[in-house]
Write a structure and sequence with these properties.
The longest helix is centred in the middle third of the chain and has 17 residues. The chain has 4 helices and no strands. The termini are far apart. Helix content is about 50%, strand content about 0%.
């Protein structure tokens, strides 16, 4: 797949600095961007990022009011 991506100037400078450094193991910007996308998708798509309880959750019918979550119903008696 071919695509065109606008990279903001500050990020483009960081990329160029990295690509020209001796620490860069990739030969091209394209290879670097492909690897970055792969790593990001591997992380996002990984079910290992979530605990077993969250992955098994099927939802519920419990309704909570905002005040129950924030404590805003309490009078601070200032």
């Amino acid at each position: 797949m071919n695509t065109s991506v606008h990279i903001p100037d500050d990020l483009a400078r960081r990329l160029e600095n990295h690509m020209s450094s001796p620490n860069c193991e990739l030969a091209s910007r394209n290879a670097f961007i492909v690897e970055a996308i792969r790593q990001f998708l591997d992380e996002v798509e990984s079910e290992e990022n979530w605990c077993e309880e969250i992955m098994a959750w099927q939802g519920c019918d419990l309704e909570l009011q905002r005040e129950e979550l924030t404590g805003f119903e309490r009078d601070l008696e200032l």
